[in-house]
Amino acid sequence: MKKRVMVVDDSRVMELQICKLLEGSKFEVVAYCENGEEAISRYEEIQPDIVTMDIIMPGIDGLEAAQVLLEEHPDARIVIVSSLICEETIQDAEAIGAKTFLYKPVQKEGLLKALEKAMM
Is 98 exposed, middle or buried (0-12, 13-18, 19+ CB in 10 A)? Predict the structure, then answer.
């Protein structure tokens, strides 16, 4: 059975790219949310195995959305996916409980490694 991934990103292109990169793997995208508020409201309904979370989005940012998700669902597995390459951002993501951090542009090997790490 494939692991269920929820993609949270304000760019539909990113969701489509992740879908394509996961073809033939043990992961599949089961939901797409274009902002943090939508991710928080739909998490319970979707019950994904992993959430990929962009940081810069309209409304609440990805780090805040991840923090809320982890407060409400401590077992949530969140992979931060961002173009913000900054040690402070990585530390912030780790501090709130994100499993790992993945840089954009996303490559297949890096994505699969990040998802595998999140499942541990």
Answer: buried
